[in-house]
Amino acid sequence: MVQxxxxxxxxxxxxxxxxxxxxxxxxxxxLVNFAHAELITISAYILVVTNDLPLIVSFIIAxxxxxxxxVAMELLIYRRLRxxxxxxxxxxxxxxSVLLQRVYELxxxxxxxxxxxAPWMSGEVKVAGASVTISSIATVVITVVILLIAxxxxxxxxxxxxxxxxxxxxxxxxxxxxxxxxxxxxxxxxSGVLAAIVGFIVVVENPQVSPMYGVNITILALxxxxxxxxxxxxxxxxGGFMVGxxxxxxxxxxxxxRVYAYSWLFLLVLIxxxxxxxxxxxxxxEMERV
Amino acid sequence: MEKIKNISGxxxxxxxxxxxxxxxxxxASCLIxxxxxxxxxxxxxxxxxxxxxxxxxxxxxxxxxxxFGHGAFAMxxxxxxxxxxxxxxxxxxxxxxxxxxxxxxxxxxxLYLSLLIAAIVGGVVAxxxxxxxxxxxxxxxxxxxxxxxxxxxxxxxxxxxxxPGSQALPGVPKFQNLFIPLLxxxxxxxxxxxxxxxxxxxxxxxxxxxxxxxxxxxxxxIRVRRxxxxxxxxxxxxAGAMYSHVAGTVQVQDYYLGFTFLTLSMxxxxxxxxxxxxxxxTLLVISVGQVLLMMEQxxxxxxxxxxxxxxxxxxxxxxxxxxxxxxxxxGVTNGKExxxxxxxxxxx
Lengths: 290, 348
What we know:
Chain A is mainly alpha-helical. Chain A is 72% helix and 3% strand. Chain A has one domain (2-213). Chain A has helices at residues 2-29, 36-49, 55-81, 86-108, 134-156, 158-168, 170-175, 180-205, 215-228, 233-253, 261-275; strands spanning 124-127, 130-133. Chain A has a two-stranded antiparallel sheet with strand order 1-2. In chain A, a hairpin with a 2-residue loop joins strand 1 and strand 2 (130-133). In chain A, helix 1 packs antiparallel against helix 10 and helix 2 runs parallel beside helix 4 (86-108). Chain B has a domain at 15-255. Helices cover 66% and strands 0% of the residues of chain B. Chain B has helices at 15-33, 37-63, 70-85, 88-93, 102-105, 111-133, 138-158, 179-197, 199-209, 213-216, 221-247, 257-270, 275-296, 312-327. The radius of gyration of chain B is 21 Å and the shape is globular. Chain B starts with 14 loop residues before the first helix and ends in a 21-residue tail after the last helix. The chains are: A mainly alpha (290), B mainly alpha (348).
């Protein structure tokens, strides 16, 4: 029972971080970045490949490379597509996602690569009379800390203020002196670091890294930002958290019918969207203009 | 004076816009299809993709609302048509189908009838889900339709009562010749063209261009979107059914993410505003893929043999998509319908 609750919270936290990364980029440029999945994947690959180095060193390498890749995406591709409309950017990001998957396949091979990352994390400890894995506690701690840092960054710093302003109304934010290119690049860099952290969390649980490693979590996080409310960063994180918690609880309590967990999750998503089209955190009558 | 924005899509019936694409499809299918047996199969698959891209064009292209859910209707169409036409003997004895409902196992209908049923089922399900889904807009609509695809995939992947689950359904009869899928694609093309020039097509494009002005002119946005969604769902069902009769099998993975995004990419690369764009996009993506495949296999193309390492093909296809969008974000055709090349200097 304790393990089930911890699992739910840690999965929720992981999805919240992924959703926050997606939501940051969506906020500044209305881009649904499918290639976020490949940022998570590259982080996991690097952690596996550099497993001989001390954990902190290999994580820093992963974070730097992932952030650089995120910024490179923006500079080489998304910057040129700005203003073409969300549908086209979404398809382009999907193309980029497939492209990177194939490049990974060429570099790392199609078969999963694995290594025991932070093996001490798979041990168990006793909490309130029940034994739980260290990794689930660590995940909860990491996500809470990162969400607090991200919350501080977004609520209390000038960069965060600019990001929030841009998420609400990008044009007006520019008129008020927000430097769009720099801000968008910063959003991509932060989203890259968040992806690296998500990559670390998932690779500890499941060290079998293959080219499509990050796709599943990205799609679910994307579902999360939509049901949470795409126009607010807090809503994105909350939506991601909810998706993780719901999925984890469904997996625990459906028993043999757990193969249908995704069906129930998606049906729930459909119902939430029909009741609140703009997401849970939105005002009732707010509608996106196509 | 500021130039008025060039709005993509057709307004009036034009003989050339309809018969140009018909001629090109027929000529290309026959010329390429009859040149070799392996190309014949490629052409048949291409025709299925084309019907699917047309289905997407009707809804996504005209309304501007993204849909990832059409894969679900294609999946449904494939399962309906595949299960209806597979021989009773195979359905009762195949190892992958021991759980299949007896009433499904004992039924067998004619190929043409099953195609019709698949289209009707696709249309009915799209019509029913559209009643709810079409209230949504923008990204919420995209994710909601994706949820539909997710439910369909999850259901068919795990359920062994209404299909083979994650395994392949064997023994689905194949099309006897090229002309059946070709004819079906042409019928779909004509239907889509007629819908696009009808008042439904035109009002739908009006809602795409301005969803505040359109209702002010008396257009019921939700109503026209529902109609278009149901119609395109029927076409997607047909496309899925056709695909199963070209492949000779039904497998749930064939209609999931890869299929959805491949067909959406074809539409966007060609230009989502027109059926000419749908055709050009399908042709372009299929031919790039085919040429690269032949290079990978070391075959000579026009007497020229370029060796490509394995795996390079997939990279090239994805790169083509990205580059095509960077080069021309509104698609190769810019959303225009077919016209004879005009070599005279343009007056505007």
